[in-house]
Amino acid sequence: MKTVGRRLRSGTWGLAVARGIAAEIVGDKAGVRELVRELFGEGIEVRKRAADVARRISEIDGSLLERYADELAGLLETLPVEESRTRWHLGLVVPRVAQTRAQRLRAARTMSSLAGDESNVVRCSAVEGLGLLALQEPSLRDEAEEMVERYLREGTTKAMKSRARGVMRMWAKAERKKK
User: Fold this and answer.
1) Who's near 5: CB < 8 A, 6+ residues apart?
2) What is the pLDDT of residues 1-22, one digit of tens each?
3) Angle, alpha carbons 28-60-177 (nearest 5°)
């Protein structure tokens, strides 16, 4: 089997490929470690692909990336604007893997910053990310609700409004589970 790095560097890329790699390395700590190493590499395209796979892993089992929460948050904070796709994917990973209050508050500051980004996809990840964080950190709920309402009112794309509605559905589902 090809290493994670080789898989990220070869062939055409798409959702099915990202999901396939994620499914393969979900139970492999060494594979996850290699994936994280690739996120910090110099290749922009490889970094974007690695972020895509990390996103898919966080959808399956975010706990696999929790040990890297601080490093991933730092990476997201420092990525250049030109790497909007990488920032988009990490904008969903970082909130999912933040486990401590400090990590959640740091991630929330980053989501607030991303909400003003020039990239629509990055702004979409900001509202979803802050919504996820607000589920775990009640002190963020007001800020998250304000962002959701703003996106519903002023969102520049259907995707932004859809993400905001998705956050509202996620909150409603969480409330039903509490009862």
Assistant:
1) 34, 37, 38, 46
2) 579 999 999 889 999 999 999 9
3) 140
Distance, CA of 141 to CA of 134 (rounded, Å): 5
For 14-70, the pLDDT digits (tens) are 999 999 999 999 989 999 999 999 999 999 999 999 999 999 999 999 999 999 999
Number of other CB atoms surrounding residue 28 within 10 Å: 13
CATH classification of the domain holding 45: 1.25.10.10
Residue pair 45/87 in contact by the 8 Å Cβ criterion: no
- Please report, as a single letter, which amino acid is at residue 160: M
pTM of the model: 0.92
Domain count, the chain: 1
Query: What 3-state DSSP class applies to 145?
Result: helix
Radius of gyration of the chain (CA): 16
Question: Containing domain of residue 18, as a range?
Answer: 4-178
What average pLDDT does the segment 155-178 reach? 92
DSSP string, 63-98: GGGGGGHHHHHHHHHHS-TT-HHHHHHHHHHHHHH-
CB 82 within 8 A of CB 45: no
Q: For position 1, what pLDDT does the model report?
A: 53
The answer to whether the beta carbons of residues 166 and 158 sit under 8 Å apart is no
